[in-house]
Design brief:
The chain has 4 helices and 8 strands; from the N terminus they run βαββαβαββββα. It is an alpha/beta fold. The protein binds zinc ion (ZN).
C-alpha cells in the first residue's frame, strides 16, 4: 500500500468531483498553446482529488504520444514520490481534433484509476474534457476549478500524516 502511495485515485469515492487548481489550468493551457501545432502532454499531480501541479512530458515528433516506459516518465514518477505528492492523471492535447479519446488513446491507457484529460485546440476556444476509465472505456466526468489558497488550506489541515481513502 505504502509503496504505491504515489499512484492516486482521484475518483475514489463515488460521484466525487475532481478539482483542478485554476492557476495550474492556466499554465497548462499556456504550455499546450506553446507546443501547438504539435501535441502536448503532461502528468497531473497533487493530492486526493485535487490537481495542484503538473510535469510536462516530452513528445517525439514521430510518435504523437509520450512513452510510458521512457526515462522522462520514470524521472517524473521519482519527482512525484520525492515531493510526497500523487500522480492523479494525464493531460494531452488534440491540436486539430475534438477532445474525444482516439482509438490509440483507448489502446494506450494503462492507469484506470487516474483521470484522463484532453484539451482540444481545434477551435478558437480551448475545449477541456476529463474522463474516467470505467468498464473498458472512457466516461466523461465533471471537474471543478479551484483556487490555490483553498487547496493550501485543506492540504495543511490534513497533511501527509493522515492517509486518505484508507
Ligand atoms: Zn488523444
Amino acid at each position: 500500500m505504502q509503496a504505491t502511495n504515489w499512484l492516486g485515485e482521484p475518483f475514489a469515492s463515488k460521484n466525487s468531483k475532481i478539482f483542478l487548481d485554476r492557476k495550474v489550468a492556466k499554465r497548462l493551457l499556456y504550455a499546450a498553446q506553446e507546443a501547438f501545432p504539435y501535441e502536448y502532454s503532461a502528468l497531473l499531480i497533487g493530492k486526493g482529488a485535487t490537481i495542484t501541479d503538473f510535469l510536462s512530458m516530452p513528445i517525439s515528433a514521430d510518435k504523437h504520444a509520450f512513452s510510458w516506459d521512457g526515462p522522462a516518465f520514470f524521472k517524473a514518477i521519482g519527482d512525484i514520490r520525492k515531493r510526497h505528492l500523487q500522480w492523479l492523471g494525464v493531460l494531452h492535447t488534440h491540436p486539430h481534433t475534438a477532445p474525444i479519446p482516439s482509438a490509440r488513446d483507448v489502446a494506450g491507457w494503462h492507469y484506470p484509476s487516474l483521470s484522463y484529460w484532453i484539451v482540444s485546440l481545434a477551435l478558437d476556444v480551448p475545449d477541456w474534457r476529463v474522463y474516467q476509465w470505467q468498464d473498458g472505456g472512457f466516461v466523461g466526468r465533471d471537474y471543478t476549478l479551484t483556487d490555490a489558497t483553498e487547496v493550501a488550506d485543506t492540504s495543511s489541515a490534513d497533511s501527509a500524516s493522515s492517509p486518505k481513502n484508507s
